[in-house]
Specification:
The chain has 125 residues and is mainly beta. It contains one helix and nine strands, in the order H-E-E-E-E-E-E-E-E-E.
Length: 125
């Protein structure tokens, strides 16, 4: 049985190729990280105008949240954010806020969106 040098070379190359680890997916192939803001709780859940409220959740950093509002589905009031991290946003209840209002954020994306979040703040008289 004759085995040529070229045949051995090809077989060795194929065996070496088969043992190489698979390449990691490129950045374009990897799923995008979820940067959608979410708020789980607010504390305190009620207060007067000027009270500082702490909203706690995920993806709340400035790179994800451009602006924060209180809304009653008729009136949207931008709040004064006093502190903002990836997990908390602290803000003051603005003048003209009244009743029970939902938090709404303007996302910081290529196509910004207003998102009404499932947490509410009650403004005391």
């Amino acid at each position: 049985m004759k085995i040529s040098f070229m045949g051995l070379f090809v077989a060795a190359c194929l065996a070496g190729y088969a043992q190489q680890p698979a390449a990691a997916p490129s950045a374009a192939e990897q799923p995008a990280a979820n940067t959608t803001p979410s708020i789980d709780t607010v504390s305190p859940s009620n207060g007067k105008v000027g009270t500082v409220i702490t909203a706690t959740g995920q993806n709340l950093q400035k790179a994800s949240v451009a602006k924060v509002y209180l809304t009653d589905d008729k009136t949207d009031l931008q709040v004064d954010v006093t502190e903002q991290t990836a997990t908390t946003i602290k803000f003051k209840i603005p003048d003209k806020a009244a009743g029970r209002m939902s938090l709404m954020v303007l996302t910081q994306e290529k196509d910004p969106k207003l998102m009404v979040l499932p947490v509410k703040v009650t403004i005391d008289d």
